[in-house]
Amino acid sequence: MKFVGRDEELQKLDKLLQDNNQVAIAAIAGMGGLGKTELALQYAMTQRQTYKGGICWLQEKAEDIGVQVVQFARTHLDLNPPKEFDLAAQVQYCWRNWREGNVLLVVDDVTDYQQIKPYLQGASSRFKVLMTTRQKLGASIKQLSLDVLQPDAALELLKSLLAETPERIEQELDVAKQLCEWLGYLPLGLELVGRYLARKQDLSLSAMMQRLEKKRLEQPALVKPEADMTAQRGVQAAFELSWQELAEDDQQLGCLLSLFAAAPIPWKLVEQCLPEGDEEKLEEIRDDKLLNLHLLQRKGEGIYQLHPLLREFFQYKLTGLEQAEEFKRSLCQVIVAVAKEIPDTPTLKEINAVSLAIPHLAEVANHLIQYVSDEDLILPFVGLGKFYKGQGLYTLAQPWNQQCLSTAQDRLGDNHPSVATGLNDLAYIYYFQGRYDQAEPLYLQTLELDKRLLGDNHPSIAASLNNLAALYDSQGRYEQAEPLLIQALEMRKRLLGENHSSVATSLNNLAALYDSQGRYDQAEYLYLQALEMRKRLQGDNHPLVATSLNNLALLYNCQKLYNQAERLFLQALELRKRWLGNHHPDVATSLNCLALLYYSQGRYDQAEPLLLQALELRKRLLGDHHPDIATSLNNLALLYNSQGRYDQAEPLLLQALELSKRLLGDNHPNTVTFRENLAAYSQQNSG
Known about the structure:
Blueprint: H1 7-18, E1 24-29, H2 36-46, E2 55-59, H3 65-77, H4 87-97, E3 103-110, H5 113-120, E4 127-133, E5 142-145, H6 151-161, H7 167-171, H8 173-182, H9 187-199, H10 205-215, H11 235-243, H12 248-257, E6 265-266, H13 267-273, H14 279-291, E7 297-300, E8 303-305, H15 308-318, H16 324-340, H17 348-354, H18 358-367, H19 379-389, H20 394-412, H21 417-432, H22 436-454, H23 459-474, H24 478-496, H25 501-516, H26 520-538, H27 543-558, H28 562-580, H29 585-600, H30 604-622, H31 627-642, H32 646-664, H33 669-684
Parallel strand pairs: 1-4, 1-5, 2-3, 3-4
Antiparallel strand pairs: 6-8, 7-8
């Protein structure tokens, strides 16, 4: 195996061996394929001058260690232990009469330390013992645990194996990095694939990647080592050695773990998959078998992970397991339960609490959805959509919402409540992305399907009316929005009661419409109702309360009630940062609103940094093509114009107008306002 990326490990290994006054036993431990034997070999080669007494290489799985020691002493040291001595006494004779100087004894691939230990007890402190093992040999043995290579070192190893054709890596650098990642940065896998590519010079890295994804561990490149390699087995064969040491229950747990995504796994999810299992027994299998054999890694408190290739290996073994189908259904039930707990508007705390389960939710959605019942079919997709939407990551939410709709249609047909949910959620994402033309037909389909399936009096109908009206409001289509908002509010009050969070939402949205139309007295009354209701239902510290505070502050700002507005803006901003984090579209909205207040008061030095923060945050979260970007550009331009920074103002006004025309149309209120701002600027500077 090419030796790359292990210099630090060599130094640590030497320190471990030299720091002991007694017999120094340093075990190089790790899963198969990490290059344990190669590291021991490299250490022995680089430290020849240190060990004047010689280097003795022993194999635990060959004949008895004692026999190997005696044979080495006879062959290389001209020692002749008396034949009448038993084997243990002959070994002790060898230790006493060994050539002068420090000695390195390497015992490769140790599986049972107790078989070796008696022979080592008579050796003096000049004998340094180095063992390679896939196990943890006990606290008394100094151990160097090997991990996979770092990504840069893995790429360097691949480059070294293709040194004769370096352009192959240069031309497909991204694919080379993907190849290293797919192999989990495992030295054995990298060397096998690198040598395979070196033999097949017309094979592109992309084609190699496709072959691996198709045949997985059975792809020929991973099966058979070349004769001059230190490793004597392919990846699957190397893992098979550890598999054979596992009892049936141990093997089953490994197979279950392989159904999770290639990501850290919260152990509580594993326990929930085996509700009838004994928690202590599971812990014993995990700690004494899988961790002990380095088939599993501990990533933190209660968090574990399989190496990607070991996951492939366990999945291969899963195909022949009687419990395979049961495990898949159980995992899906556990993951669906996680999805159900993700709220519509998750706080940062709720996002963090569920974040480790998200890759496993995606794994179920992408690869195990056939094991999810019709009733729960869309829940993994809905949960993923909420997770990303709750952070303002609409681009990441969108594919899950699209997949939700197509999966529901494929399995359940076009006339099903889950399809209506899929249509609504996808429209909702388009709405937040400012893609109003795509959102509207989906909202209309949702409303029509809900009416057909649920009748005219159902909370879902009210929700559809409210969402469609919010879209019309954003497009400046106030006359179409108002009757829908009033209808939704009346329906929610009748069906859900006067004190319900959905009623508060309707009050807030109707108030926003009146605010947009300059009907401030009506708007204020409804905003105050919504705020009071949200505080009562959700408590004083909730993102929805922050929304109400911010909306009311906007109203006061329009009325030049600056002191009241500033106090509410600051409250809303603080709440949003606390519950949503610093990187969220709602935080950008608060920053922008507070900046507008300062601008209105001529406090330009305070307004500018907030406008710049809002613009940068919106670009990062929403992309360059979103109505909110146009708004931020316009606001920043107005500030620059007021400061006499005309060269900076004009291009921003032009960008804002062009973007608004493209996204919202020529007649949208925002477009009209931006056009008027540009005209005023041009007139002001025409002389």
